[in-house]
Amino acid sequence: MEGMSIIVKKVAQLVAGLIFTYGIYIILHGHLTPGGGFAGGAIIAGAFILLILAFGSNAMKLREEVAGTSNTESVAILMVVILALMALLFGAKVFFANFLDKGEPGTLLSAGVIPLYNIFIGIEVAGAILTIFLALVIFKEESSK
After folding, report:
1. Average pLDDT of 16-29?
2. What would the mean pLDDT of 97-122 be, rounded to a whole number?
3. Most CB contacts within 10 A, which of 16, 25, 130, 142?
């Protein structure tokens, strides 16, 4: 897949940065507003997909990126499981228990361990969606040859 014009590439670079920042915002404020790890991860994956569509698959080493996104996805979900097990280690006797201080309601650090879950779920979702997209692009390129 060839890239698009220079105008599209520059606009995609600018817009992808804004989309990525918005995805991080959604993840970090997921315990205060609607959103969270899944929604923010999907938005972040959208930023990367926009760049791949604008620059084309020839400009990027897609096979290496599939392995990288798959590894990132695996590490992120492993961190979710480790956080869940940490509750058991700290004596909560409940899997996925909120073992950190909850702070003051309405502030960014007011949910204990929930923002950490949101962060790792966001990374996992972004990696999964990007892996699926890259697999489809690689399949399309291989079938057209």
Report:
1. 95
2. 79
3. 130
